[in-house]
Amino acid sequence: MCYYWCLPFFANKGYHPNITVHPECNIASAQAHEFAVNLQELHATLKSEISTAQQCYQCSADVCQIPAPDFEVSQQVLVKAQFFQTTQPSKKLLEKYLSLYKIIACPSTHSFTLHLPNSMHAVHPVFHVSMLKPSTPNPFPNCSEPALAPVVINREPGYKVSQIVDSKIDCH
Length: 172
What we know:
By secondary structure, this protein is an alpha+beta fold. It is 24% helix and 20% strand. It has helices spanning 8-13, 29-64; strands at 76-80, 97-108, 111-115, 126-128, 132-134, 151-153, 156-158.
């Protein structure tokens, strides 16, 4: 099967580039009219082929698309900490999500504007839905542990150890 119709020159001109010249051919206006009609048919065919190809690509792209989120304005969400620089020395020990932030706007279907604290003034406040996680309510509503206040030791914050639960001394 020959696919000459998909070459760009043929699609624009209706014929293949030919270096040889044939002076004996006399083109009449009927031939020019037929040529223009054939060229319009070719362009219509190519438009439909491109549309069909775009629909095929759209179907495969829709499979991977993230569904529309259920977030609403004024809802509290968690933000992934993956792309933020922190003072934590090891990324392994870093929390997966930052603290709760309030949604203040929805500029598009898959992005949300968050109200960030002044300490994060260098961060753009619009986040994609893949970077957000809805806050889950406390499974034990009447039980909550207040955060312990840090103790300053040698000008560094630290925490008091309330008890040692288990220990093991390895002599090997």
